[in-house]
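Readers of this paper often ask what the protein records in our data store actually look like. Nothing more is needed to write down the fold, since each code stands for a local backbone conformation. Below, we set out a record of this kind in full and without editing:
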Amino acid sequence: MTPADAATRLTGTPVAGSRPLSGAVWQADLADGGRVVVKRYDDPAAVIAEAASLEWLAEPGGPPVPRVRGHDGHWLCVDHVEPGRPSPGAAEEFGRALARLHATGAPAFGAPPPGGPADASIGLAPMRNTPSPTWPDWFHEHRVIRYARLAADAGALTADEAAVFDRVRVEAPGEPPARLHGDLWSGNVHWAADGRAWLIDPAAHGGHRETDLAMLDLFGCPHLDRVLAAYHEVSPPAPGRRERVPLHQLFPLLVHAVLFGRGYALRALASARALT
């Protein structure tokens, strides 16, 4: 099935034309003047996970997310959002909206979105959502040790290096589970032509809200100082958040080590040694 065929079937509207955007992602122009994005996955669980994530994050008052138009075993179709440019005003509203989204909560740390699978993915890496009543034990087992072992399996860490992550001290202020985007690096903040910052490509689950904030900081989100200041206006994190950033960044760094190799593994390892 072509991307145009998938878009036609999932929207119920003929496609006038389509073009690739990146990898297994296409833009399709509908005959009625609408425009959608179509993504193909090899793993049916990944389709369900992203669709459920987008629907769970579509909370009033939170950052906007693309509307899911339809999905099946291998295809996901969502509304296209016209790109724009980052601005200080959009960054501030994004920070406030992200705080409101986090505050809507989750049933447990590690809980998947309603209807989402336990075995989901983050990028092209596997991600298991296993509900837990406490954040430190869950984060250590399912977001640090698990990915250190996967990185070792991929050859990015030695067995001795992976063992360092077993000794990481996982400590954070006690808070209820937040509703996380889950893969909130700067590329998944879509600065749109409507003057807003949208959330795309989520790996949503229940977690500690500081994980989303730390991931924004990892690869340089535009106007991050404005985003964080506005977030603090709505829902200030506990004192010492900056000192906890390296702990929360272990998760995305290890995911990148699994996918992209030794350079990210060494960054994660340096942080882990400082946290033992």
Summary: The mean pLDDT is 96. The chain is about 45% helix and 20% strand. The first strand starts at residue 15 and ends at 22.
